[in-house]
Every structure is written in C-alpha cells, then in structure tokens.
Amino acid sequence: MRRLVKVYDTTLRDGTQGEGVSFSMEDKVRLTSRLDAIGFHYIEGGWPGSNPKDLRFFRRMQDVTLKHAKLAAFSMTRRAGGATESDPNMRALVEAGAPVATIVGKSWDFHVTHALETTLPENVEMIRDSIAWLRPRMDEVIFDAEHFFDGFRANRDYALQTLKAAEAAGAHWLVLCDTNGGTLPQALVEILREVKTHIRTPFGIHVHNDAECAVANTLAAVLEGAGQVQGTINGYGERCGNANLVSVIPSLMLKLGVDCIPEPGLRELRDFSRFTSELANRKPWAAQPYVGDSAFAHKGGMHVSAVAKHPETYEHVDPEAVGNHRRVLVSELSGKSNILFKAREFGIDLDHETPDSRKILERLKALEDQGFQFEGAEASFELLMERALGRYTPFFELEAYRVIVEEQSASGEPVAEATVRVRVKGMLEHTAAAGNGPVNALDHALRKALEEFYPSLKQMRLLDYKVRILDESKGTAAKTRVLITSGDGEETWGTVGVADNIIEASWQALVDSIEYKLRRDR
Q: What is the C-alpha separation between 218 and 233, in angstroms, rounded?
C-alpha cells in the first residue's frame, strides 16, 4: 500500500500575506470549494480573531458542506500573563465553527524574549494551556512551531521543550516551521532526524521560500517521515512566498510514489493554478514547473525532433498527468521538426522533405531576422504558413488607413481618430471611428467596416497589447514589435507585427488577429 501524506493548504491566510495578493470573502469561498473538490485534506480559512473578513468567511462556511477537506481556523497561543478561557483569540477560534484549530507558538528563544517580551517558561505554558483548552472543544488541534529550525540551531533543548509541551497537551500534529525560509535541505534533514527521536506525535512541515528551497525542503521532510505538508497554491506568501503545493503535489505523487490527493485532482492542477491566479489578479507564471505554459514548451529543433519520436527525451513527466499540454515553439532556432509539428497542430499536411516545409522555414527565419517573434503569436505563424503555401485568401483588402491624434486643450485628454478604407467581398467600405488611442481607434474603425459582413467579430475582444523596442540605440526611430492577445470567450490567440512605425506594427498584428478569427470561424 502506498503511503499517504496529508495536504494542508494555507493560501487563504498565509498566501494573502504575499505582496499584491488579496481575496474577497466570495473569492475565499470559491477557492475553498475548489480545494475541497480536488481532494485537499485541510484548508486554512484564515484568522477569525484578527479581522472582520475572516470572521465573516467562517460564519458563511457554516452553511457550506465540504466533502473531503477539513476547515481549519488559525490563531496564536493565549497572550502572556492572561487566562486561556478569557483570551479573545481562543474564543474566536471556537466560535468560528471550524473543526480544526491551528495554533502557532514560538519555538525560538530569541523570539520569546525579544518579540513576545516574556519569559521562556511562560511561553511553554502558553503553548500547553492553549492546546489543552482547545483539545476538548475541537475535532483536531494542530501546533505550528514557528521559527523551529532557527530556534533549534540557537537553543536545541528549548525548541524541543516547546514541542514536548504541545505533545503533552494533546496536539494531533506537530508542524515544524522554517518561518524565515533560510534553512537548506541538508540542515533540515539533520534536525528532523534528531527531532524524531524525541516525539511520538505525527509531524508535518511548513516552510518558506527565501532561499529558493521551500519545495525541496518539503520533499526532504516527507522522505524523513513528515505526514503533513503545508503550503500555498502557486507559492503565494509573505516575502518570497511559501512552499508551492502545485509543485509539491505532483512531485510526491509522480516522483516519490506517495499518495496525497486523488489522481483526478492531479489532472486539475493546471486549471486550478490559473483559477487561483485570476482570483488573486496575478499573471500566471509562464515558467512555473508542471503547470506553466513553458513547462512543456520545446523550441530547439533537435529537441522537437527527439520529442516527436519519444516525449520522455525532453519531458520528465507526461504533461497531461497535471492537466498541461505539450507546446512547440517556432523561432530562428527552429528546424523542420518544429514546422512539421506546428503544421500538424493546425491541420496542415506537410512532408518532412517537401519544398513547402523548406519554404516555410526560410520565410520564418527571414521574418525573425527582421524582428518578428512567433513564440507568443501562434495565430500569426499559422497565417504565415498559409501564405507561404499559397493557400491564404484574405477576408478583406486594405486600400488605406489614416490616424490623427489631436490634443484639443492643455487640460484635456488627447483624442484619436482613425479612417479606414477596405474592400470586402468586392465592396469598398470607408469608415471612421474615435478611440482612446490610435490603435484603439484603428480597431474600432476596422470593426465598423467588417462587422456587417462578419457578425462574429462582435464577440472578439483585444485582451492584451505589448510593445517592445528592438533597437534602443536608435531612440524614437527604433523598430518596434507589437504583440496583441485577442479572445472571443472560447479561445485566446496571439499575433505579432514589426515595423519602424508603431502604428504600422500595431496594424499588422491587429489584421492578423481578425483574419485568424474569421479563418477559424470558417
């Protein structure tokens, strides 16, 4: 039987301490539902005694039934010199209605004397009293030994004393925390091996990423017997973040042969990672291991040739196991294998040695030499192939466009106006439109000319617009690359344009975006 390690998610509390990360109460409810559906064991909802939003969340969750996960409420130990039964944090924990309480206590003598400003014996009593009081009132009590690894290095006996106090009071789990995130795997393993000789209670691991070792430390702790791993989705958290559960979970299941969540949940990881990014209003990390867009992206021609024959030559796991997919990029590094792979992806039948494949490759390299880049503009690359093969039939033809930007007063915003003349299905359309900038005005004018003929364009939206200066030394005369991301609710696609004139580069990318949409609809 495979070993089971329980996963404890603290995105809703520790994750929100990351710079720029914030969730509304409804966001937290949605995230909790997804975490539960994927199969997480514990979901830390927040600190009910610290802020009204977390308190409202726990009250709301009393009406929500979780199928798999246990909801945990977080708090610190009772205050120094106070009584546990009258401590507001202890009362808030019980009133929150969560079945699990997670109590954080100091295990580093330096923090006890300098941050809490109390005595070492009093801190031990705070840990013991808090857990003993909560034990009969909660289904489960977890002790988070804060700064444990730093504390162990500074005062081994005292750090162990805090664990033994929590154990004697009846804690169900002792979770060892690398709160400052500076412990390296070898040191962590050495400490864990000694700790195991002093405790009987199951232990877990909670590490931060300040030395870029959070995932490695978490996996090392599991190999040393940790039965619970704590972390956050996408590694969100204070300073450099927490252990990234999106990396920890597949590493446990696919590399170490350890069970933690149901296998269907593993295949949900990419979608859930991006869902969490959306709610946090953070751009997904393209190079994120396992689930990022670049995780299984191949660019070098030799790599693509090998992957087409045997994917394991350059892929450490099957991308579909974590809900991801293989991507082949096209660039000046591309060989024929890249072109053939992308052609198959777009439904274009090419043979390895045909003049057509050589023609596309030559055209690609010539354009990239001019500054075009197709890695984020696959729609433009598909159109490039069609044009190179002589299969491209434009949906409209440009006769002329003009853009005027006028500032009407010193205090007012500039006004942009675009005029477009295009021939559509043999008819000349001459339209004008205003916008909040020259590209926006061009977009409006072109749509105005085309939507009567192609109504599906009404569903298309420009989602992102990026400008890159290619030769900065030329200043305002520099060549410009424009990358546009568009979508219609069903698919998103990227297009690219390059020119000395930023408006012309934008026009190229804009036209490709519309042409791709119309071609796909057809």
A: 14
